[in-house]
# Entry
Amino acid sequence: MSYVTRNLLPYLVRKQICSIVRQQRSYSSPPASARLNVPIDYSTHSLLQHSSSSLQNHPEYPRNQASNRLNLFQAINSALTHALRKDERALVFGEDVAFGGVFRCTMNLATEFGSERVFNTPLSEQGIVGFAIGCAAQGMKPVAEIQFADYVYPAFDQLVNEAAKWRYREGSTGGNVGGLVVRMPCGSVGHGALFVAPMHSRVDKVADRVEVITLNHRNLYSLIFLDYE
# Structure
């Protein structure tokens, strides 16, 4: 390598790096081309069924049966109501759930089932999940709500090192926390994409002796579904 090349190369590299840095934004505002807070018309979405007649080609759905139109938060509220009515061991608790919750998924539950089964908790995600694990270990059916999935990280120790490994630690005793359900809203809404965790997954399989975590995207709470009677 010649003397000129050896001395010119670092200069060219520094110049390229400076050019890249100048092109990057060092602040949290959206680019000019971003489409924020644009409403999504789910009523015409090709992936969704919008009437009972459109479901006739799906044999897994009941035919010729009355149905109701519900959005997602109403469907969640209905499911929680059903669980509380069906099993006296079911509990619902979390931050502000007694007031209906931020997304109104627990509306009127405290009124119908009382403060002993539907109640608010302190602002402690680790405490909420830890308490839920203890309830499940004693045979209860707790539904613990984390107000926002963005804040669940302090509870990872409980979820990963306690709930997920409970049955293995119990060995042949048969002990488990299979009644445990943890639900939380996730995803970003509008400008929130710049500041909150963009989580979009959902695990919703309920089975005996299986712990369940459900993540409901915030943008879908107003989505309309058909509920069969």
Q: What stands out?
A: The two ends are 80 Å apart (CA to CA).
